[in-house]
Amino acid sequence: MSSATAAPPAPRFRRPAWLSPGTARTEVLAGLVVALALIPEAISFSILAGVDPRVGLFSSFVMAVVIAFTGGRPAMITAATGAIALVVAPLALEHGVEYLFAAVVLGGVFQVLLAAAGVARLMRFIPRSVMVGFVNALAILIFTAQLPHLVDVPWLVYPLVAAGLAMIFLLPRLTAVVPSPLISIVVLTGLTVAAGWSLPDVGDQGELPDSLPFLGIPAVPFTWETLTIIAPFALGVALVGLMESLMTAKLVDDLTDTPSDKTRESWGQGVANVASGLFGGMGGCAMIGQTMINVKSGARTRLSTFLSGVFLLVLVVALGDVVAIIPMAALVAVMIFVSIATFDWHSLRTIHRMPRSETTVMLVTVAGTLITHNLAIGVGVGVLTACVLFARRVAHLVEVTSVLDPDGGTRVYSVTGALFFASSNDLVSQFDYNGDPEDVVVDLTDAHVWDASTVAVLDAITHKYETRGKTVRFVGLTGHSADRFERHTGRLAGAH
Fold first, then answer.
1. What string of pLDDT tens digits covers the 496 residues of the chain?
2. Which of 32, 219, 264, 382 would bridge with 365, disulfide CB 3.0–4.6 Å?
3. How far apart are CA 424 and CA 465, in angstroms?
4. Do the beta carbons of residue 377 and residue 86 sit within 8 Å?
5. In DSSP terms, which residues pair with 417 in a beta bridge?
6. What's the rounded Cα separation, in Å, for the pair 232 and 227?
């Protein structure tokens, strides 16, 4: 009998999930639907930024392809967006498109640096009420963006949109083999062409490019003056892009019950923007509407993101004449479906049961977004409101009680709660400086000192007693509270 052990079996090749026939089909079809929806959006955002339509289209192609490899959230779509268009529009108007390209490249560099600094970790400070407001405002913006396509148009547009919505909502009950938005687009396009109806179509939105994008360095002077011109816009691109992208990534995490790498997504967005600027694009960030189309179509991997960019380029360059005849009614139906699916209807059903502060934060986020048409500003206002309301609520949780020693020579105050700038300001008025005996003890065992403002208040209390010839001792401080007290006052905690 041989003592030699049998050789271990050769490792079996595990096929990636996206290579399975069913998954691959879903990813391919979802990518195609997203590409079709990207075309009118990219053209519209180009017009908003004051540049040629090909700038937005090329930007969407480059960013979708690059983020498929560098991004941290599979199935999320990154392309030219309205928020970024609003940031760079003044620069393009005043200095020209080459300065815009340079700003986008610099904005991408800023995003990589912010990712290295750990900006993604700030996402945990965004309350759920702000997230709900972000989602609801986004749904409203997506819907209102379709209204121009429904005003002053032939009456046939309305039944076509209704028919498209009916197909999108009802077909999944029969089959999920092909995404219902794609079926709707194909059917409505075929019907419009066969009937010979003259309706607004994709071709009316702007001229489609007939050549591929090429790599090039922005034609701007490499001077300090140029940097001072583009840096503010580049910082805007970086901050707005990261905020929208990270919020969208968190939303997709919740929808798919899968985690994502926010730090990777942050620097991935930066790399995508650098590539966009070098290929003559206007930059961008995650697109919540197209991402929702992708996810609702069943996509879960990077393949759909990559193919959305590839299909976009093929459609506008090789099949531009075919894409141009797609009626806008078909794409409007898809986007209305996205807005309905995006809105958090549960938040309306439970609004009467939610705390008033949570409801206020949600409504402020929605209002801020709708007024400014900028999701980043809306979220910023929502977070600021949440912080103010939280501080106001916590400030009332501080309690001060006092007892007099039996001998009458010492008054002991007990302070309970979190002491910070909002709660400690009223602390000064809780002591009887004139009526207290010569010796005063402030017991902070059940309190926590969070900031220098509180230490300054404790110093003010000490000063008020000293001016009256009395002594005060602070006892019970431990850990970080004691360290903070000793560092700012130079006295040991527990002793005067």
1. 444 555 566 555 455 555 566 688 889 999 998 998 888 778 878 877 878 888 999 999 999 999 999 999 999 999 998 778 878 888 988 999 999 999 999 999 999 999 999 888 877 777 888 888 888 887 888 788 888 889 999 999 999 999 999 998 898 888 767 778 888 888 999 999 999 999 998 888 777 777 788 888 999 999 999 999 999 899 889 988 998 899 889 889 988 889 999 999 999 999 999 999 999 999 999 988 889 889 988 899 999 999 999 999 998 888 878 888 889 898 888 888 878 877 888 888 888 888 888 899 999 999 998 888 777 788 889 989 988 888 777 767 788 888 888 777 889 999 988 888 877 777 888 898 988 898 999 998 888 888 888 888 888 888 899 999 998 888 888 787 788 777 766 665 554 4
2. 382
3. 17
4. no
5. 447
6. 9
DSSP per position, 69-129: HH-SSTT--EE--HHHHHHHHHHHHHH-HHHHHHHHHHHHHHHHHHHHTTGGGGGGGS-HH
Sole residue written with tokens 């065992």: 445
Contact 284, 81 (CB under 8 A): yes
Residue with token string 């687009």: 185
Please check whether residue 457 is in contact with residue 485, taking contact to mean a CB–CB distance below 8 angstroms. no
Sequence-distant (≥ 6) Cβ neighbours of residue 154 within 8 angstroms: 197, 198, 199, 200
- Strand 410-419 and strand 399-404: the pairing is antiparallel
Q: Taking the CA atoms of 21, 23, 28 and 32 in sequence, report the sign of the dihedral they define.
A: positive
The answer to whether the beta carbons of residues 282 and 120 sit under 8 Å apart is no
Structure-token pair, residue 168: 């999108």
68 CB-near residues (< 8 Å, 6+ apart) = 302, 303, 305, 306, 309
* Under 8 Å between Cβ of 216 and 280: yes
Q: What is the DSSP letter of 9?
A: P
For 259, the token pair is: 């985690």
Give the separation between CA 138 and CA 335, rounded to whole angstroms. 12
Token pair recorded at residue 447: 């309190």
Q: How far apart are CA 91 and CA 89, in angstroms?
A: 5
Q: Which long-range contacts (CB under 8 A, 24 or more apart) does 15-24 make?
A: 17/300, 17/301, 18/301, 18/302, 18/303, 23/300, 23/301, 24/303
Assess contact for 293 and 331: CB atoms under 8 A. no
Q: d(Cα 244, Cα 84) in Å, to the nearest integer? A: 10
CB 156 within 8 A of CB 328: no
CA-CA-CA-CA torsion sign (333, 335, 341, 343)? negative
CA distances to 6, 132, 238, 407 from 3, in Å: 9, 66, 65, 90
Give the integer Cα–Cα distance in Å for 379 and 366: 8
Cα separations (Å) of 58 from 49, 106, 187, 404? 14, 18, 28, 77
Q: What angle do CA 127, 128, 130 make, to 5 degrees?
A: 70
User: Is 402 strand, coil or helix?
Assistant: strand
